[in-house]
Design brief:
The complex is a heterodimer of chains A (177) and B (476).
Chain A (H helix, E strand, L loop, with lengths): L3 E7 L5 H7 L4 H6 L2 E5 L12 E7 L2 E3 H13 E7 L1 H5 L11 H11 L15 E6 L9 E3 L6 H13 L5 H4 L5
Parallel strand pairs in A: 1-2, 1-3, 3-5, 5-7
Antiparallel strand pairs in A: 4-6
Chain B lengths: L3 E5 L9 E7 L5 E8 L5 H4 L8 H6 L6 H16 L5 H33 L10 H7 L1 H22 L8 E2 L2 E2 L5 H28 L4 H6 L6 E6 L11 E5 L5 E6 L4 H4 E4 L8 E4 L9 E2 L2 H7 L6 H14 L10 H21 L18 E8 L2 E9 L5 E7 L1 H4 L1 H15 L7 H14 L3 H4 L10 E4 L5 E5 L3
Parallel strand pairs in B: 6-11
Antiparallel strand pairs in B: 1-2, 1-15, 2-3, 4-5, 6-7, 7-8, 9-10, 12-13, 13-14, 15-16
The chains are: A alpha/beta (177), B alpha+beta (476).
The structure holds iron/sulfur cluster.
Protein name (chain B): NADP oxidoreductase
Cofactor (chain B): Ni(2+); Fe cation
Pfam families (chain B): NiFeSe_Hases (PF00374)
Chain lengths: 177, 476
């Protein structure tokens, strides 16, 4: 059987959804028999590869760099799964929209710094005017809510993709869970 | 030759996203190297205007790896605002949950992220350097790592409601007492988990001789150290006061009340990183560079206070021959010792009758307009400071995150390792992996550190002095 080429990436999230992925615990070993992890924070691959079967995306989009990479992911992936509330709605990551990037940067780098008050502007990507969920930028194939998405839901979802069966997502997770 | 810059982007097998640039001068020497943290989330702004009661759940979302630390510092800050002292059982539950997180987080760094370098070597093919490969070639070890991490996560879930972003640590103490059956189930597993932690220690020690160059050059330099300590000078992750020690082992300042942290810690902005650099104010920037986390804690602590960890601590201290251990590579060693300590301490706390009391929470209302909460996160000292109105509305927030404290030292480490290992005429993947590995020693949590994370990209770009790309190399 051909293994599924799996990518995982965290964008503007807290990495909690990726931690929940690891919370599959021993079931990870079972999953690893069916998938090849070709891109992920857990493996040393610097370039997003071509022809990925499924990419699991954690986090919302908050920089110009996030926008570029999500477009590349879309081009190179058959399926995209938005993992967790940040990827799906913006959630906590989008709370800075309440004030806007400018005010948020002002607070961090002027009011709360003792020396060299300025905006970081070299080498680092530029913040978008507002943080947006994945589906505002690209087509998303699956949405798996939760903050974080529970490990059981991630496991069932992956298993259903491997086996080609259907699951009832609302029985496994919901927003805010 | 002209000036060039090597970009490693993204740094992998760390918790969060960053890139590294290595500047090469005209004579082909590595002139400088830096870590750049590339996204910013802004918790310090958007928490304004919210109710103080929301802060534990909200600030937990700065980080999915150490949410417990944020919840602990948040609730400690709110305890101060309410003017309450949690009952002993509440405090002990918080301590156990904090140690369980330390255990799972250290396990994650050692097994899931760093050990592929120890097993396969720093020069191994990049496809092999990960936990999934380990599952095939070293299934026992991979399973050990998974089980030990799961054990920590399960304790958090059982005592505080949820593995990630737990809800059971609340202002005034904890939400629930510990059931007898939960206690027994945890205690029953401790011997097996201790065996795993000790075998990790043994594996590390047995393999140390292979990494002498890494020990000597992955961030080996003098710096100050900061950690919480208690009066007796034993290892401390929850209570205690701040202590600064210099690289010779002299105490610069001890018994600092966490609420006075601003008198001693300043923060400066780097224009090429979203991560600010804290420094020890009396020495100024950048001389006030200090390190936090497991290495700092074990350098500062006189003893761990638990038998097995103390035996190991002696061996660790011998490495410094009476002075602090200055090699960043030994963060790994220090974390392994803390894993043993965490297991012993969880057992000790669970066996105390006080911990099992049903009196787990004190209540009160807003009594003060400011609170500072401080705890030792897995990666080092973490501060939350909140200001509130008398109705409990947050008016100002300041966070100093464990990883941020290490920013100056991480940069010093990256520079040292790049100068030692990167041959600018023949850039190898193994050399670049070592540059990333020094970052892994610090175990930075970059999602936390800028109260953010993000970024991604690609390959090695070589740029001219105008930052224009002149060559791109695939990293293979
Ligand atoms: S959905 Fe929740 S757990 Fe997932 S990245 Fe966002 S804040 Fe973190």
């Amino acid at each position: 059987m051909k293994k599924i080429r799996l990518g995982t990436i965290w964008l503007d999230g807290c990495s909690g959804c990726h931690m929940s992925f690891l919370d599959m615990d021993e079931r990870l070993i079972e999953i690893a028999e069916y998938v090849d992890v070709v891109y992920s924070p857990y493996v040393d691959m610097k370039e997003f590869p071509e022809s990925v079967d499924l990419t699991i995306v954690e986090g919302a989009l908050s920089t110009d760099h996030d926008l570029r990479i999500i477009k590349k992911i879309r081009e190179n992936s058959k399926l995209i799964l938005a993992l967790g509330d940040c990827a799906i709605t913006g959630n906590v990551s989008a709370m800075k929209n309440l004030y806007g990037s400018e005010a948020v940067l002002q607070r961090g780098y002027f009011e709360l710094a003792d020396l060299n008050q300025k905006y970081p502007s070299k080498v680092v990507p530029t913040l978008l005017e507002s943080v947006i969920p994945l589906h505002e930028a690209v087509k998303v194939d699956y949405f798996l809510p939760g903050c974080p998405t529970p490990a059981d839901a991630i496991y069932e979802m992956l298993k259903s993709l491997i086996e080609g069966t259907e699951i009832k997502i609302h029985e496994l997770t919901r927003f805010g869970k | 030759m002209q000036n060039r810059t090597i970009v490693i982007d993204p740094v992998t097998r760390i918790e969060g996203h960053a890139k590294i640039t290595i500047d090469i001068d005209k004579s082909d020497k590595v002139k400088d190297a830096k870590i750049h943290v590339t996204q910013y989330r802004g918790f310090e702004k958007f928490c304004e205007g919210r109710m103080y009661t929301e802060m534990p759940a909200l600030t937990a979302r700065t980080c999915g790896i150490c949410p417990v630390s944020h919840v602990i510092s948040a609730t400690k800050a709110i305890d101060e605002i309410l003017g309450v002292t949690p009952p002993k059982a509440g405090t002990n539950i918080r301590k156990i949950v904090n140690l369980a997180q330390l255990l799972q987080s250290h396990t994650l760094n050692f097994y899931h992220l760093s050990s592929p370098d120890f097993i396969y070597g720093f020069d191994a093919p990049k496809e092999d350097r990960n936990i999934f490969k380990m599952m095939q070639t070293h299934p026992e070890m991979a399973r050990d790592g998974i089980n030990l991490r799961a054990f920590g996560q399960k304790i958090i879930e059982d005592l505080a409601g949820k593995r990630i972003h737990p809800t059971g640590i609340i202002p005034g103490g904890a939400a629930h007492k510990i059931d007898e059956s939960t206690k027994e189930a945890i205690l029953e597993q401790i011997p097996a988990m201790l065996k795993i932690a000790q075998s990790a220690l043994e594996f590390f020690r047995d393999n140390l001789h292979k990494f002498q160059e890494e020990i000597d050059y992955l961030g080996a330099f003098p710096s100050l150290f900061m950690a919480l300590t208690n009066k007796e000078g034993t290892l401390e992750h929850y209570d205690g006061k701040l202590c600064f020690m210099d690289s010779e082992g002299n105490i610069l300042k001890d018994r600092i009340e966490p609420r006075d942290y601003k008198e001693f810690i300043g923060e400066t902005v780097e224009e090429d990183s979203y991560l600010k650099s804290p420094y020890y104010k009396p020495l100024g920037y950048p001389q006030g560079m200090y390190r936090v986390g497991a290495l700092a804690r074990l350098n500062i602590a006189k003893t761990c206070g638990t038998p097995l960890a103390d035996k190991e601590l002696k061996k660790f201290k011998a490495l410094g021959a009476g002075k602090p251990v200055l090699n960043t590579f030994y963060y790994h060693y220090a974390r392994l010792i803390e894993m043993v300590y965490a297991l012993e301490k969880i057992e000790e706390l669970l066996k105390s009758d006080e911990t099992m009391s049903a009196n787990v929470r004190s209540t009160s209302t807003v009594s003060y307009d400011k609170g500072v909460g401080c705890s030792e996160a897995p990666r080092g000292t973490l501060f939350h400071e909140y200001h509130v109105t008398k109705d409990g509305i947050i008016t100002a927030v300041n966070l100093i995150i464990a990883t941020g404290n290490n920013n100056l030292a991480m940069n010093a480490g990256v520079k040292q390792v790049a100068q030692k290992f990167v041959d600018t005429k023949n850039i190898t993947d193994g050399a670049l992996n070592r540059v990333e590995a020094v970052i892994r020693c610090f175990d930075p949590c970059l999602s936390c550190s800028t109260h953010a994370l993000g970024i991604v990209s690609s390959k090695i770009e070589i740029r001219d002095h105008n930052k224009k790309i002149i060559r791109v190399i695939e990293r293979s």
